[in-house]
Amino acid sequence: MDDDLIMPGLHPLLATRWSPATFDPAHEVEAAQAELLVEAARWAPSAGNSQPWAFIVGRRGDDTHRRLVRHLAASSGRWAPSAGILVANLAHRYVEGTDWEYSEFAQYDLGQAVAHMTIQAQALGLSARQFRAFDRDALAAEFDVPGHWEVTTMSAFGRGPARENPEPARERRPIGELLWTDSQAAQKTVHSP
Ligand SMILES: Cc1cc2nc3c(=O)[nH]c(=O)nc-3n(C[C@H](O)[C@H](O)[C@H](O)COP(=O)(O)O)c2cc1C
């Protein structure tokens, strides 16, 4: 099988998901849909059920959206504002007032919650693109995010272009590279003399 072909049998929500870099500026995400995305995150698994996540959700046209857009980088500023909603994804990193980790899996769990959001979006007919291209510190200051929380990533959700020609093109490492074997481990081990 060609490395970039998707294996038959992969669930359509996973097989058809991709991250567009353009969104329809006329399309609106309904408030109920935005709420469902957060509901999808709410039901994600997390270490010890610690649920170390929070989300700042702005719908295009509202004040939160305007405040989020202010802190986009030049690159994301070209496409993210036209998505129906922008979400800042926050991880609960530390116990307040200490340098103790709230959970050693906080970022792992946040990522998993965001993955749930993207698949729920796909089920709603919405596309998602997660991104790092924004000013984390400025966004944290804008929304008074305290030091024990981390503004980790953002996501844009909206109506993307037709699926036939994903842009940018989607590429993946072959499945054989993902499966860790003893021989791969031996190759990757750095032997000292
Ligand atoms: C944590 C994270 C950070 C990302 N940051 C950016 C970004 O700053 N700008 C961007 O255009 N895409 C960003 N992406 C999107 C990835 O480039 C995209 O998911 C990847 O190329 C795979 O494409 P696909 O989602 O269409 O399969 C990010 C994705 C993740 C998960």
TrEMBL record:
InterPro entries hit by this protein: Nitroreductase (IPR029479), Nitroreductase-like (IPR000415)
Keywords for this protein: Oxidoreductase
Residue span(s) of domain Nitroreductase: 15-73
The keyword Nucleotidyltransferase appears for this protein: no
Basic and acidic residues composition bias: residue spans: 161-175
A Pfam family reported for this protein in Swiss-Prot or TrEMBL: Nitroreductase
Sequence similarity: Belongs to the nitroreductase family.
PANTHER family, per the entry: NAD(P)H NITROREDUCTASE YDGI-RELATED, NADH DEHYDROGENASE_NAD(P)H NITROREDUCTASE XCC3605-RELATED
UniProt name for this protein: Nitroreductase family protein
Organism: Paractinoplanes bogorensis
